[in-house]
Amino acid sequence: MFYWVVKAILAPILHVVFRPWAEGVENVPKHGPAILAGNHLSFADHFFGPLQLRRKVISLGKSDYFTGRGLKGFFTRMFFSGVGTVPIDRSGGKASEAALRTGKRILREGNVLGIYPEGTRSPDGRLYKGKTGVARMALESRVPVIPWAMVNTYEMMPPGRALPKLGIRPGVRFGKPLDFSRYYGMEEDRLVLRAVTDEIMYALMELSGQEYVDKYAASARVEMERAARAARPQS
Predict the structure, then answer these.
(1) Pair 33, 103: CB distance under 8 Å
(2) Which residue stretches of the chain have pLDDT < 50?
(3) What is d(CA 109, CA 2) in angstroms, rounded to the nearest whole number?
(4) Distance CA 179, CA 144 (A)
(5) Cross-strand partners of 147
(6) What are the domain boundaries of the chain?
(7) Residue 67, pLDDT score
(8) Global pTM?
């Protein structure tokens, strides 16, 4: 209920101020489970991605969003609850298996699950290598995967910017559902998981028009931060 209250309040404001656009909304099924696999350009994706859909989109977010203290912690919890985020531990290992189980439960309940295969926001607006968790979830749950490409949100609100820029229209393109039924029963095969993930990322590249980089976004961010520190003048 809280999700729909937040959406009812924010949607008219966002439409008037930013005039967001969408293409391919008809590709998202009106009923039944599905995975929306998207690129992740900006914090603004949480607002503008699900905005044009009449179905609730549930996403998986790091548990840190729900454990903060004080006034900031309270509003952070309220925000992520309001945009349909379910907390998970993303520390890896057994935590990854727990996240997978949570995602499969959401799909078993007939919901739409939003996933960002890159695992984090792009540090520079390019599209990075996807992690294979989305492939495992799709094959084990046997649900369609709809590519979900955000457009212009990086330019509007890049990482580190507190407020979005005006005058930039954010958009979202929903691609046709990807059918991976030919791989059902092969979810333990690492080559299959990589092939499925790469097919999803290729579809996102086609929809978004982004340049693709064959490395993980988190690694690229570390490299950029290291290069920035090295470029600073020594005192």
Answers:
(1) no
(2) none
(3) 19
(4) 6
(5) 37
(6) 22-51+91-231
(7) 64
(8) 0.87
